[in-house]
Amino acid sequence: MNPYKYNKQVWKIVLLFFAAMIGIASLLYTNYLVKNLSISERTKAEVWAMSTRSIMTMPDVDDDFISFIYAVRDSLSLPAIIIDSKENIIFWRDLDSTKTNIKAEEEHKEGLTYDPDYFQKQLYIMKGMHPPITLELDTGESWLVYYKDSSALQQLRIFPYIQLSLIAIFLTIAYTVFNSIKKSEQNLVWVGMAKEAAHQLGTPISSLMGWIELIRLKYDAENDDVVNEMERDVQRLEIVADRFSKIGSTPSLSNHNVYHVVNDFINYFKIRTSEKITFILEGDKHVEAMLNVPLFDWIIENLLKNAVNAIGTEGTIKVSITENIAKEEIFIDISDTGKGIPRSNFETIFQPGFTTRKRGWGLGLSLTMRMVSYHKGQIFVKESEIGKGTTFRIILKSNLKYEPTQV
Question: Membrane-crossing residues (predicted)?
């Protein structure tokens, strides 16, 4: 199991678990409060209903007692409607004070609007929220009291969802900032290591160049093929050291023929691999793009090395260069007949530390993606099938401009 992928999955599961626990606890506690408050409000609605019935049905009694009943009724603030057995609205409370369901001249004089539809709509809403409270009258008739939740209870019902949304937004922002800081720190580490490696390589490379010249002079090997190839390898080391020294700085780009650059590197690379691996280069030989050749060679080198490792002993690596004239883009497809990549790893393989090999740092494709971005391009796994092979696609901006044909 890949440790990078495993650790990342474990942290995701742990964070998801704690987030779920916080969300469930918040919902359960809020539902507990809502339930208790709802019971309290029903009790208030019952008291209000009984006090209203007493006021409307009681005979003449002491004024102090009537005042007490009014005080009890008016102290209970809750949207409610009382209807009789024929669903006529007898009394209502805490609804829109500018409307009335009683059509009378004196009501209109007070600036009220006669709007019975409003009260019917409110009654319909109340019927859907709570079962009615039944009031039995001395006459044998029954009244039904419907009520709505108070604004405080309604807000409390939606509060946990607002709270969880704010927590989710906060965690998302915090996770993004943390990742950004972490990547910046990693980048500084990689840049420091790369520049130190380039510095350390400088002295032995210079010494090797001197030893090669001594070999030529001592053994008269000016045109010896072996010595020439040794010199090419040392020059290659110089290029590698130069690459590492430039990591972290913006590379300079210049116009190059893509086919020629790729062909030159393949010619160098293929004589250093097994003869059982066949290299094929095909496509448009005229497309041009803005490249930094040492870095672009590094891109091709990483992809070809991965292809060789995927193939093992015998197979084919094909590089195809095509141009999308409409979008002014260049497609470089590097295909191998290796073991393939699972679809679930199409994006993971470009992350630092990911590797399927027993040896390796898992930085090759991560650096490759960074170098492609230096060229303002894209790289991704175009297609892959287990046991049959993989195709990587690089997209670069074409440096050739085409004028539309005029008819």
Answer: 13-34, 158-178
Query: Could you give the CA distance from residue 199 to residue 338 in angstroms, rounded to a whole number?
Result: 36
Count the alpha carbons within 13 Å of 390 in the hemisphere toward its beta carbon: 22
The tokens of 58 are what? 């009681």
Tell me the two tokens of residue 238.
């110089």
| DSSP, residue by residue, 311-352 | H-SSEEEEEEEEEETTTTEEEEEEEE-SS---GGGTTGGGST
Going from the C-alpha of 330 to that of each of 72, 280, 401, 407, the distances in angstroms are 82, 18, 12, 27
Contact (CB, 8 A) for 383 and 376: no
Residue 261 is inside which H or E element, if any?
helix 258-270
If you ran DSSP here, which 8-state letter would residue 111 be given? Answer: T
Taking the C-alpha atoms of residue 6 and residue 79, their distance in angstroms, rounded to an integer, is: 56
Q: Do residues 237 and 267 lie in contact, with contact meaning Cβ atoms separated by under 8 Å?
A: no
**Cβ-count burial of 156 within 10 angstroms (0-12 exposed, 13-18 middle, 19+ buried)?**
middle
Please answer whether residues 302 and 365 qualify as being in contact, where contact means their C-beta atoms are separated by less than 8 angstroms. Answer: yes
Cβ distance 398 to 288 under 8 Å?
yes
pLDDT in tens, 91-134: 888 888 888 887 764 545 566 788 888 889 998 988 888 888 88
- Strand, coil or helix: 101: coil
Q: Where are the beta strands (DSSP E) in 19-60?
A: none
Q: Which residues neighbour 354 within 8 Å (Cβ) at sequence distance 6 or greater?
A: 2, 4, 5, 345, 348, 362, 365, 366
- Whole-model pTM above 0.90? no
